[in-house]
Write a structure and sequence with these properties.
The chain contains four helices and four strands. It is α+β, with helices and mostly antiparallel strands.
């Protein structure tokens, strides 16, 4: 993985809950610290777009998908632990 690559994330949430807010805040903090100016975040509320969640194979929230760079990575829950999230998204090399 090249360190200059752009990252594109999609965060699936279920409404405006405390859990959803925490997941988004943690993702934004991670991106700000480790991927400044190299990321985009799309948020999909499955309460408003249940068809999209089903089509994308998302059945639990919060769920995070790293769309780019490939390969696609999916993480369900556990978005509050930065070190685990970095590892699951293959971003630990960037912070080393």
């Amino acid at each position: 993985m090249m360190f200059s690559e752009r990252f594109r994330f999609r965060l699936y949430v279920s409404g405006h809950t405390e859990v959803a807010s925490a997941a988004l805040a943690n993702l934004r903090m991670l991106c700000r610290e480790h991927l400044p100016d190299r990321h985009t975040i799309e948020i999909v509320d499955i309460r408003r777009h249940p068809d999209r969640a089903a089509r994308d194979g998302i059945f639990m929230t919060p769920a995070l998908v790293r769309l780019e760079p490939t390969p696609i990575k999916k993480i369900v829950a556990g978005l509050g632990h930065t070190e685990n999230l970095l590892q699951a998204l293959d971003l630990e090399k960037i912070t080393a």
